[in-house]
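anyone else get weird line breaks when pasting these?? whatever heres mine. first is seq + tokens for prot A
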Amino acid sequence: MLFDSHAHYNDERFKDDVDEVLSAMNENNVGLILNSCSSLDEVPDIFAICEKYPFVYASVGIHPHEVSELTEADMDKLKEYAKNPKVKAIGEIGLDYFYDFSPRDIQQKWFARQVDVARELKMPVVIHDREAHKDCMDILREHKVSEVGGVFHCYAGSVEMAKEILDWGMYIAFGGSLTFKKSVRPVEVAKYVPLDRIVIETDSPYLTPEPHRGKRNSSLYIHYVAEKLAAVKGISVEEIENATYENAKIIFKNLELNNEYISKQMYEQCVNFEEFQKKYNEISKERENNSFDVITLYIEMLKEFNCRINKYLLQCFHEYIYNNGFINEEINFDVIFNKLHKNTIISLSEGIENIKINLIMSKIQIKIDFISFIHYLLSKENYDLLNYDTMYYIYSKIDINLPSNFILKLFIRSTNK
């Protein structure tokens, strides 16, 4: 599936058909979208879209065009908005010397301030840089963007500049401009940047790729960017899709696939209804009068069917057993998930020192296959309730240099066990 890492569906040009456009994403192979923000006034509309469409996430920030009248109170508001669980980055923020809608010194001030906010919140940044390369890089360097990482949206810099960006652990985004017939520099940079540091975007409704240049853009056109990138790299479109999708998930963290896809996964896990029902009956009979702890039931059922808990998967599981009559009364899903999640974190915290000791004692094995080694330790400690948040918890507690995509790889390895 495709991940559009930068779009603006709250834009005026989508006011009449945003629902029609977004409803068509799944059937057109678009799995996730990050809706970027230009001003705080846009946030309520962006949040409304994110709430309605599970596969749409958000960044919050103030575009350089909109910074002229900012105050520190706006930074407090930005921090508050960033608490929304659908918000995955601070942006788009940066400098724009092409239009200069805001004085350059003011742009620089609030760009730097928002990078500091991102570091305070430990969130990645989405960077807008138009004809302001030197000042943009100076600010990012001075304000230690490498501590949080992020993505250069619609990258227009040189290969040399890209080298330092990559050194900071950041990613490079390519959009419609890569497909333009006279596009030279983006193609040169795309050839240079490693595939595991590239994401793709549309910047909808702007920067429409060929062959639709001049029309309103949408995520339905992102496949043209993937196809062009595949041609530049000399690899298949499928490889581009898979790599850029996973890269964007690494940047923005804790993203889930859309509900329909997860539902399909869930039903594939439980495709044998009779077997499922048999196991359910075995568990429930162990409790007097078929009265049982639903959380325990969920854990045992998920273990039996070799599932790993994440929020959407658990929600689909809950709906499945409720709709099929396994549970006679509706249960508060959020309470169930929070209890499961809390129990997982507690069990991890109890054994984390053992993991750290084993890591220190086994550095040679780490060098051979780090991901397999960590997964082996987790299985030895019986951590059955693995999800992305617990992966990140482990990551934060282990004092050792790890691959940049460690958490994602470990999560996938655990999920596919």
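and prot B, same format (seq, then tokens)
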Amino acid sequence: MNKENYDLGIIGAGPAGYTAALRAASKGLKVVLFEKDKVGGVCLNKGCIPTKSILKASEVYRQALCGTDFGLNAENIKLDYSKVIERKNNIVDKLRKGIELALKNAKVTTVYAEAKALNSKKIEADGNIYTCDKIICAVGSSPKIIKGLEFDHKFLLSSDDILNIKELPKSALIIGSGAIGIEWSRILSNFGVDTTIIELAPHLLPIADIEVSKRIERIFKINKIKFYTDTTVENINNHKITLSNDEIIEPEIVLIAIGRTPNTVEHIEGIDYIGDIAGEIQLAHFAIKQAIEDVEGIKFQKDLTPSVVYGTPEIAWVGFREQDLEGQNYQKSTTLVSSLGKAWCDGETDGFVKILSKEGKILGAHIVSQEASALIQQITIAMQNDINIEKLKEVCFAHPTYSEGIFESVVKM
């Protein structure tokens, strides 16, 4: 059956899809949005939001156990993991309903069905044909699979699976030390799970600046999170895992956290592909900016997309890493978080703020600190607007704050 015509048809209601729908509707366009599962995509339902909810619970639990450091003597602190999951589900539901309401108020037609583009103007869904002047495809990604370590969803878990385990294991092996692996190693360790993480590269979090990677390794040692680099899984025999370094471990679960791969879809000329499906940077904020650029023409600098890994301390960076600048002339200024009064008040003194520059122009920044997710945005704004080191020296930074780490780094350059 042929349906009425639309100005814009969007397949996939994740951050890229629902942002494009809302921005287009605000411009007066008639929009139809297709979603085969739940509005919000990976980020809201299976990624950023649920993971951060569980991570926060794990940190509250860890802080409660360390309350004596602040003069707080609490006894019989007990963990009810079912309540952690219940809170996570409530947060996800609340945020999803907010997006659904925004779409409804914007008069976006939302169709809950699997959709397929037939050509650059027609979409088929649930036996109906929708004609659209323009089509955007934003169907996201799925957990990447390792040959020989295919998910069984019981012992070998994906990042989707681990969000819904009913009880915590006593021990866990995490394969891969990207953002997913680092965050889940922190979550499980905070909850008292015997956690081991392995990484194929020579250092943990290999996408980060080398000093960041080394600092994370130091923090993991302090927190008794076992890790092996330059290491792979050689063999699995009845839940007994042999690693390439000849270590043998028997974890209760294995989280395979080697990233995500774009979902398979036929690429049709004339259709715009945005978000994870585009095969570029797989971050929700990148997808949102892609959607805004596509619909409204507001450009953004892709190479200034900040990255954040959550937990204590947070990790964030933007721009060039030191290893990217090898052989070039550049300046480096580093301030230890332990030199900041706010860090001592909070009891979180590990980390640093590092700024890289050349001839007064900021090339990159790398932060391991509480509030790093907010601090990195200050640097990103400066870089985006060509605010040089000398101009930043004129800015008054509040005291006591973690932002002073940026000022202290800048003033030394």
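btw re prot B: The chain has eleven helices and 22 strands. The first helix runs from residue 15 to 26.
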